[in-house]
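Narrative of activities, Objective 1.

The group set out to show that a structural description can be obtained from nothing but a protein's sequence at a throughput compatible with the screening campaign. Below is one input-output pair from the validation batch, recorded exactly as produced.
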Amino acid sequence: MLRRIFEIITLLLILATTPLAASAQDSKTDAQRRRTEQYKKELEKAKREVQTLQKEKKSASKEVAALEREMRLRNGYISEVEDELRRVQADIRRSDKLIDSLEGELGRNREVYAEAVRVAYRNYSSNNTTNYILASNSIADAARRKAELEHITTSRKRLSDTIMAQTAVLDAERLKLAARATELDSLTRVLEAERRVLESSRVAAQRAYNRLSKREKEAINEQRKQQKQYDKAVAELQKMLKGNKVGAGFSRNTKGLNLPVDGGELTEQGFGGTVTGAKGAAVKSVYEGIVQDIQYKKTTNRYTVFMGYNEYLVTYTNLGSVSVKKGDIVKKDHKIGTIGNGIESGDKPYVRIAIYDCESKKPLPVSSFFKKK
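Output recorded for this entry:
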């Protein structure tokens, strides 16, 4: 009987002491949450800008532009929240499976432990332990039998400890599942609220647009057309940058780069920034990179230069002239063009900057890369 229990405990102990696959912190989830928070922060800034314009009753064209920028950011934020929502749903499915597995394993271990305790009690009541040792053929056989009994006792204790540890893990997983379920409800409510506000912004933008003059409407429509062409060009260039190694030092960890315009001032606007400077000032590459494309718009007489820095795409928009050509490898601080004048009279000359991570296909905040001089 004792030998049989020894075999059962040894077999189940192997199963019971198998390391549990604890759910490690998912770095992608962390990155997703950081992006979501960044979108939220930029969205709040855009909302304040719209509110300021509406209170000050400035030009309707600026209000439309601000509203459309807010809507682009809100769409991006909604996209990020949807991604996070899908991650939470996947986590919940994984937790459900893990909890089912843990419950099954824990139930089996408890059954074995209960049987082992019952057998131990019966052996104790019938004095089987002593009889087992006294039935030895020699001193060596007695020592071996005594060691077996001690091992059975130790194994039973280890099985008990494993059951306690599994119970703690199971309780933790249940708490985690409850927290993720709460998070799922919260994200669902956030999405519903953001979609309602997005619709409200669309209505406000249409009202502001209706107040525009014919000339202003034509200008806004041209800007919209350019934005669509720009987005399409960015998507194509992201594919081209796959595997680019020029400017390999440029990454999410690159911080404190000088601005592309000497003496310029950076203003963040959503996931991009505007650098103002002196008329005709040189616009320089912030790092070694390769010129992926150059676009010229007849309607505005302005250029956009697309620079590839390793797996990152940086666009320089509203250049008055360019001094590079497609395919050029440009060193850091090398001139790529000159700053363009502002669109409206009285505006400072500026260059618009946008940064994209070609792996995630998401825009990045420019403050991660530039600093004011």
